[in-house]
Amino acid sequence: MYQVIGNLFIGVAPIFGCTAALLGLDWFLAPGLFQAIFKLADTPGQPQWTASWQALTSTSTSWWQLLLLLILTVTIVIGGFDLSPADYQNSAIGLYSTVGIVLVLTTLLTLIGITNWIHTLVTWGLMVAIILGYSLLVSLVVMLITHLLTNRA
To answer: What is the pTM of this model?
Structure first.
């Protein structure tokens, strides 16, 4: 069972690693962007749009930091999130076991009244979703630019 569940995490490790790298780059190169993401994710039920926008616009970031962040983000998005067919196949094997165990543990913890971890889990999940959405947007822009440049002839 341990190896089957391990296959899921081995197969999708690039997604989590690239997401963590992008979040770390935001923290290091654009602290305002990192704070804006965290402010949105901290209260998932009622996102703090105004506070997030204020954090994004009030923190000054130099042009070279933004350029470096953009270059590194494009590099990570283009080359880091690519999973092979074998990764998908191995991940699928562990997915069912992992979902089953998570459902059983979550149900048991909720029934005995231990629910204080849910807010942290939802906050981190929303933060990952924001970064993945940002990655998808960057990927679509790169794909559009590539499509426009290759179809010029």
So the answer is: 0.79
State how far Cα 67 lies from the chain centre.
Answer: 21
Tell whether the model's pLDDT for residue 153 goes beyond 80. no
Range of the domain at 54: 2-150
Give just the sign of the alpha carbon dihedral 38, 70, 147, 79: negative
Specify whether the CB–CB gap between 7 and 94 falls below 8 A.
Answer: yes
Q: How many domains does the chain have?
A: 1
CA 135 – CA 70 distance, rounded (Å)? 11
Eight-state DSSP code of residue 43 = S
Q: Dihedral through CA 138, CA 133, CA 29, CA 120, nearest 10?
A: -170
Tell which residue, 37, 11, 32, has the closest CA to residue 129: 37
pLDDT score, position 54: 93
* Closest residue by Cα to residue 80 from 126, 139, 125, 3: 139
Token pair, residue 121, equals 């889990």
